[in-house]
Design goal:
Distance between the termini: 61 Å
Structural class: mainly alpha
Helix content: over 70%
Largest sheet: none
Strand content: under 5%
Order of helices and strands: HH
Number of strands: 0
Shape: elongated
């Protein structure tokens, strides 16, 4: 909130900031990239959990 007030005082007005189409496109691309990477990390975590379960099962079979 303090940063917002600081930015407004630097800009000198309470008018909304307008972005160009190019800036909006760049932001959308950044959001899409972030979402994709987040999804990939989630998939890696699920794969890791599944592999750990398989290793535990293999250890049990080997011990029996």
């Amino acid at each position: 909130m303090a940063e917002e007030a600081k930015l407004k005082s630097q800009m000198g007005s309470d008018e909304p900031v307008k972005f160009t189409d190019e800036e909006l496109s760049s932001l959308q691309e950044l959001q899409n990239t972030y979402a994709s990477i987040s999804t990939q990390f989630g998939q890696v975590k699920v794969s890791r959990i599944n592999l750990e379960r398989q290793m535990e099962n293999l250890d049990e079979v080997e011990n029996n």
